[in-house]
Amino acid sequence: MFKVNEENLSVEVANEVNFSEVGWTEPDEIEDMVANNLEKFVDVNGKEENLIVVGRQVSDESRGRNDIVALDGNGNIVLIEIKRDLRDSKRRRENIESQAVRYAAALAKIDSPRELLSKMYSEYYSRFGKDSEDQEEGAARKKLYDFLETNDIEFEDINRTQRIVLFASGYSERALSSLAWLSKNGVNITVLKGSLFKHGGELMLDVKQLLPVVDEEEYFIDIPERDSSTTRSSSRSRKPRVGDMMEEGLLAEGDKLRIPTDGDHPDSVATLLDENHVEVDGEKRSTNQWAKEVKGWDSVSIYREVEHVESGKLLNQLRRGLE
């Protein structure tokens, strides 16, 4: 990794260091860093997700402890396991891949918001999520249910499947072989390698996705099938998203989107770039982040708050034709 001097465009090499050299430990600094920046770590390939942490250091019946547990915008549980470096992994009695699968299997039993609250989220919220002034009884329940409503998650869709995310500064060849086999055979597992660099007093982190490996054909642009509505409806079990509306021609790159505000401020208008991003004031931002900034809320449903300027309809109204 290089640090660029903007004045003369010279580059200086940043030295790679491991987490232990800077005094970071797995349950403290590294876990805090991942938990506080979860949306940046769970997917590093450009698809920003709406996520909420629902547990940290959650113990299962076998006395294993899950590092971080989150819920994604589709209602699925995401297990994030962290290992500081390869040396730490080798010292463990149980290998990283077996541990992750065992934890995910235990989490698969959760099938309702009530269970999420009772088994982990209420405790997590009281320790990490509660604001200093937030003493309202039932605040954890409200926060969780607000997230479900914002993301159009029905109760019966809670935890239909589980996802595993591993984050470490290194993996053994044996572990990567096992993890690649799991990924190839349908286990939803993402393997991230975090490399820490130091230059002067600055720390820089580079995160690479090792698994799943991107297939070259994923970059090919296919010709979509224009089949009957029966095929379309049967293939879609979730509510249509922005990408679905773009595929069907209800939205297009370059369309104007608007978020109405109160009478004291002008409405915020953005240009649609792709299924996840808009351009606002000349800057590219995720649609979710734009909506959060305009409304000033922690969690926003873009489908209920964002309006398609040309049609004059909210995204929620626009997508009803695809349901």
Task: Indicate the topology.
Layout: E1 2-4, E2 11-13, E3 15-17, H1 26-36, H2 38-42, E4 52-59, E5 65-71, E6 77-83, H3 86-91, H4 96-107, H5 113-129, H6 139-150, E7 162-168, H7 173-184, E8 189-199, E9 202-211, H8 229-235, H9 242-247, E10 256-259, E11 268-272, E12 277-280, E13 283-286, H10 287-295, H11 302-305, E14 307-308, E15 313-314, H12 315-318
Parallel strand pairs: 6-7, 7-8
Antiparallel strand pairs: 1-2, 3-8, 4-5, 5-6, 8-9, 10-11, 10-14, 11-12, 12-13, 14-15
Helix pairs in contact: 5-6
Structural account:
This protein has 323 residues and is an alpha+beta fold. The protein has two domains: 2-211, Trna Endonuclease, Chain: A, domain 1 (3-Layer(aba) Sandwich), CATH 3.40.1350; 229-322, no CATH class. 33% of the residues lie in helices and 25% in strands. The chain has twelve helices and 15 strands. It has helices spanning 26-36, 38-42, 86-91, 96-107, 113-129, 139-150, 173-184, 229-235, 242-247, 287-295, 302-305, 315-318, and strands at 2-4, 11-13, 15-17, 52-59, 65-71, 77-83, 162-168, 189-199, 202-211, 256-259, 268-272, 277-280, 283-286, 307-308, 313-314. The strands form three sheets. Strands 3, 4, 5, 6, 7, 8 and 9 form a seven-stranded mixed β-sheet that branches. The radius of gyration is 22 Å and the shape is globular. Mean pLDDT is 84; it is low at 228-236.
